[in-house]
Design goal:
Elements lengths: L1 E6 L5 E5 L3 H10 L5 E7 L3 H10 L4 E3 L2 E2 L3 H9 L8 H6 L2 H13 L3 H10 L7 H6 L5 H9 L8 H4 L2 H18 L1
Antiparallel strand pairs: 1-2, 1-3, 2-5, 4-5
Length: about 180
Amino acid sequence: MIYFIRDTATGLVKIGFSDSPRGRLAKMQVDCPGQLLLLATQEGGRRVESTLHERFAHLHVRGEWHRLGDDLDAHIGSLPPASLSSPAVERARPKHVLLVESLCDATGVGFITARSWLRRKSIPGRYWLAISKAGVMSLEELAVMMADPTPDTDDHRHQHGGLRSFRARREGQEQNCEAA
């Protein structure tokens, strides 16, 4: 997938390729003091990326970064604006996949790493604030989940529950605490 990411501080646009443009944006944002915006995406691989770099070579600044000239602006404007996802895509994905993708977006880690964190109930503390700010889970939910030593298994009863199963378990714990 080809992405167009704009650095709001410099106005430069990065034309790049990634299997996960949102994940790439999250990783880049960690190293960038200015705000980065995912402007648009388009289908294509490395060959399309290379063609776009050649097409906009006259705007090239450094690496994959380009000034936003009229022709690059028009190209980006011809693409659908980047969105987190479409409602149809959201409905088609299992809840546990959406949760893992949300963790990827919030932290910039890969899918396998985020899935492993959830299975082991072991999300490194340095990511908690980013996860909370992104609205994936509250700090309280993270603390309760990390305190539960029972790892999730791969069986479908747990997979399809995702965060919903976690919240149900947490509510059960709260009721047990209130009864005590």
